[in-house]
Specification:
Helix content is 0%, strand content 46%. It is mostly beta strands and 115 residues long. The strands form two sheets. It has a six-stranded mixed sheet with strand order 2-10-9-4-5-6, with no helix packed on it.
């Protein structure tokens, strides 16, 4: 089983930025479209961004213009840069495969946006 480890979250003020990272435990990562998901309290987990093996990305409407997904296949890592953070971005952020969920969920990384 591939394991996923997310990091980079934290408490930030509105307007701030964060760069989240997700490392996969196996190089098979490189052939998968990868996605970033988030789950806010009381809400369902949602896909916010995904990137295919060649680096082509797409975003949920809520993420367009402020979120940038990228990947480093040599390091089995996918990143999510979030700029101009808003309180509504507060959530637990996870990565997984971006088309159908293929691997166990990691522990996620908490993003809290508050003044």
């Amino acid at each position: 089983q591939v394991q996923l480890v997310e990091s980079g979250g934290g408490l930030v003020q509105p307007g701030g930025s964060l760069r989240l990272s997700c490392v996969a435990s196996a190089s098979i990562f490189r052939i998968y479209t990868m996605g970033w998901y988030r789950q806010a309290p009381g809400k369902q987990r949602e896909l916010v961004a995904r990137i295919d093996p060649r680096g082509s990305a797409d975003y949920a409407d809520s993420a367009k213009g402020r979120f940038t997904v990228s990947r480093d296949n040599a390091k089995n890592t996918v990143f999510l840069q979030i700029d101009n953070l808003k309180p509504e971005d507060t959530a637990l952020y996870y990565c997984n495969t971006g088309v159908t969920i293929s691997w166990p969920w990691g522990q996620g990384t908490q993003v809290t946006v508050s003044s």
